[in-house]
């Protein structure tokens, strides 16, 4: 009897497309059954099914955006909503067997290794972060494997950092170093709006077989519809939460938050939302913290333990303007920021991290007093050298004028070598501070 009732409740409601304007299709006949976020199937003239999502309502009609091109869809095309009280709206059947796989934002395998194994338990891709008062505190220090980061922006397990860079400054290479070398149980990598040409290079060369073995890679290339680019971020976060809830230490790398926001902007503007800051509708800056806050420590369980999502979100700054709206909003939400500088990269130092403009909000609390002292002294030396760099290069500075500048001139070559690291070179926090101690001549 119960099975019959359940089957009776699963019905299809059919409407039709009234008009298509830009990226949105306007559908009539389904208003009484639809709500924001519902998935609807559109049918092209040749019968091709195109999944779509409700993004807004206007004049008693629903506005839908598709997960694929709307080719073949026109006025009068069928729109079908399947009403099933037990069916999920937006979610994935995530499984442990997804490790080592490359998937699209809808949970389909795209690596040629066959279909994914699905868990019987469904997880929503859009959910709230753990209640703030129940979340664990940040864990111990985490080896990121990059000397400049481990020594100057030391990261704790469960921390969230922003990686701010212009295009072509070495952001993807730095991410690949973190994915391979960071000390974590699982890595979840989201390539949101990435160049299609670079995907295989990143997976096969930068990430490599060993890095992929412990990773799940979610990909939506730059030619994907805005809904797919948006879902890539949500899917990656849901996968990270799945492993976090198992008590694991998860490293989430998302490249990039800017392209996620651009997708949100396309969706919002197409749905009729008014543009605000630099063309971004207000919903973008409401959605952004809702996503980023989901990363971090998980809720403490009854056994007193918790899983963690340590996250690095890249921000592609427009025109190298680090105060543009997305960069400014992300910097205010996260627990620290790492700045890549184009001039440093042009000078041949990679990773092109501007140590003086980068910070971690978990420092100095996670380092010893001696390590903090070393870090402050090294920063002061680099700041002194940068302040006088033009005069030093021109030969206008006379040695002996200022002891602090004299020290900077002597030590800067060694510090530059310390900050330079090949993409396949590994490092640890202890090793990084020991190397810094040797450069500064300090006694342990």
UniProtKB/TrEMBL annotation:
<keyword id="KW-0966">Cell projection</keyword>
<dbReference type="GO" id="GO:0008564">
    <property type="term" value="F:protein-exporting ATPase activity"/>
</dbReference>
<keyword id="KW-0066">ATP synthesis</keyword>
<protein>
    <recommendedName>
        <fullName>Flagellum-specific ATP synthase</fullName>
        <ecNumber>7.1.2.2</ecNumber>
    </recommendedName>
</protein>
<keyword id="KW-0406">Ion transport</keyword>
<keyword id="KW-0653">Protein transport</keyword>
<dbReference type="InterPro" id="IPR040627">
    <property type="entry name" value="T3SS_ATPase_C"/>
</dbReference>
<dbReference type="Pfam" id="PF00006">
    <property type="entry name" value="ATP-synt_ab"/>
</dbReference>
<dbReference type="GO" id="GO:0030254">
    <property type="term" value="P:protein secretion by the type III secretion system"/>
</dbReference>
<keyword id="KW-0813">Transport</keyword>
<dbReference type="InterPro" id="IPR050053">
    <property type="entry name" value="ATPase_alpha/beta_chains"/>
</dbReference>
<keyword id="KW-1006">Bacterial flagellum protein export</keyword>
<keyword id="KW-0547">Nucleotide-binding</keyword>
<dbReference type="InterPro" id="IPR020003">
    <property type="entry name" value="ATPase_a/bsu_AS"/>
</dbReference>
<dbReference type="GO" id="GO:0016887">
    <property type="term" value="F:ATP hydrolysis activity"/>
</dbReference>
<keyword id="KW-0067">ATP-binding</keyword>
<keyword id="KW-0963">Cytoplasm</keyword>
<dbReference type="InterPro" id="IPR000194">
    <property type="entry name" value="ATPase_F1/V1/A1_a/bsu_nucl-bd"/>
</dbReference>
<comment type="similarity">
    <text>Belongs to the ATPase alpha/beta chains family.</text>
</comment>
<dbReference type="GO" id="GO:0046933">
    <property type="term" value="F:proton-transporting ATP synthase activity, rotational mechanism"/>
</dbReference>
<dbReference type="GO" id="GO:0009288">
    <property type="term" value="C:bacterial-type flagellum"/>
</dbReference>
<feature type="domain" description="AAA+ ATPase">
    <location>
        <begin position="157"/>
        <end position="345"/>
    </location>
</feature>
<dbReference type="Pfam" id="PF18269">
    <property type="entry name" value="T3SS_ATPase_C"/>
</dbReference>
<dbReference type="InterPro" id="IPR005714">
    <property type="entry name" value="ATPase_T3SS_FliI/YscN"/>
</dbReference>
<dbReference type="InterPro" id="IPR022426">
    <property type="entry name" value="FliI_clade3"/>
</dbReference>
<dbReference type="InterPro" id="IPR003593">
    <property type="entry name" value="AAA+_ATPase"/>
</dbReference>
<keyword id="KW-1005">Bacterial flagellum biogenesis</keyword>
<dbReference type="InterPro" id="IPR027417">
    <property type="entry name" value="P-loop_NTPase"/>
</dbReference>
<dbReference type="GO" id="GO:0044781">
    <property type="term" value="P:bacterial-type flagellum organization"/>
</dbReference>
<dbReference type="GO" id="GO:0005737">
    <property type="term" value="C:cytoplasm"/>
</dbReference>
<keyword id="KW-1278">Translocase</keyword>
<keyword id="KW-0282">Flagellum</keyword>
<dbReference type="GO" id="GO:0030257">
    <property type="term" value="C:type III protein secretion system complex"/>
</dbReference>
<keyword id="KW-0969">Cilium</keyword>
<keyword id="KW-0375">Hydrogen ion transport</keyword>
<dbReference type="GO" id="GO:0005524">
    <property type="term" value="F:ATP binding"/>
</dbReference>
<comment type="function">
    <text>Probable catalytic subunit of a protein translocase for flagellum-specific export, or a proton translocase involved in local circuits at the flagellum.</text>
</comment>
